[in-house]
Specification:
Blueprint lengths: L1 E4 L17 H10 L2 E5 L1 H9 L4 E6 L4 H8 L5 E4 L2 H8 L7 E6 L6 H5 L4 E5 L5 H14 L3 E4 L9 H6 L9 E3 L5 H8 L3 E5 L6 E2 H6 L5 E5 L8 H6 L2 E4 L11 H11 L3
Parallel strand pairs: 1-4, 3-4, 6-7, 6-11, 7-8, 9-11, 9-12, 10-12
Antiparallel strand pairs: 2-5, 3-5
Helix pairs in contact: 2-3, 6-11
């Protein structure tokens, strides 16, 4: 490894790591710069295993030994800084000790992602990175094949999403959809029935839907609070609901995704 001690938070070589807590800024600068931030030695290791290429690494000295095997033969600068400097640079206390600026992999086309899939999840405008990460974790653990996100959905590669997902966003295939109605047309062209998870008087209970679900299902989930847009619901083939008790009308979107995916498992 090319170990380089650093002691100046304004060092231009560290610009990828500045202001990591500014969500609105990072939402723009990371995709535009073609990078994402992997946080913790475990996430960095999984990113490397997934074939992602690092641009640089920034860590505390005590984490060098943990990361050295994963970086063997990887020709990138590794910056070593004291904990206090890391906090100045990033804006938070880095408990997990290591960060890597990773090159974003090229996303597959929608057609490529859907070609061999049977169960996919579509996220419409979900803006909370924690929910996005939790949904990816459910997808990975419960056996869905892919995730598709709408243009305004939160970035699955934002570091909070990656961390909450237990790095499964680096393993689960995903891509971005175009706007409606083109998104629905592409799903239908691949043979998917769009099942919208929503509250509706005419909705089919999840267990009844799962008992006779078609071979290919695209489970459509909406944003926190408002749920799915009228446009999305207008393009859905079925509306499905999770029956609830004790006056509770719905679950958190990440919890709902897990329940629905378990019911629709193949």
């Amino acid at each position: 490894m090319q170990l380089t001690p650093v002691d100046d938070p304004s060092d231009p070589r560290l610009r990828d790591y500045l202001h990591l807590t500014d969500v609105s800024l990072r939402r723009l600068t990371e995709p535009a710069g073609g990078l994402y931030i992997a946080e913790s030695t475990k996430v960095i290791q999984r990113a490397l295993e997934a074939g992602h290429r690092p641009r640089s690494v920034l860590l505390q000295e005590k984490w060098i030994a943990d990361l050295a095997p994963a970086l063997e033969g990887v020709d990138v600068p590794v910056y070593v800084a004291a904990p206090e400097l890391l906090e100045q640079i990033t804006g938070f206390v880095l408990h997990r000790g290591a960060l890597a600026a990773m090159h974003r992999p090229e996303l597959p086309s929608v057609a490529e992602l859907l070609r061999d899939a049977r169960r996919v999840v579509v996220l419409e405008d979900i803006v909370d990175h924690t929910n996005v990460g939790a949904i990816f974790r459910a997808v990975a653990g419960l056996g869905a094949d892919a995730v598709l996100v709408t243009p305004r959905c939160a970035d699955p590669l934002y570091r909070r999403s990656v961390r909450v997902s237990m790095a499964s966003v680096l393993q689960v295939p995903w891509t971005r959809l175009p706007e409606w109605p083109e998104a629905a047309a592409q799903l239908h062209a691949a043979g998917f029935e769009i099942a919208a998870l929503a509250l509706d008087d005419d909705a089919v209970p999840l267990d009844a839907y799962a008992a006779s679900a078609p071979e290919r299902v695209a489970l459509l989930l909406g944003t926190e609070g408002d749920g799915l847009s009228r446009t999305a619901l207008g393009h859905a083939d079925r509306v499905v609901t999770i029956p609830m008790q004790r006056g509770i009308d719905s679950l958190n979107v990440a919890a709902a995704s897990a329940v629905a995916l378990w019911a629709l498992r193949v």
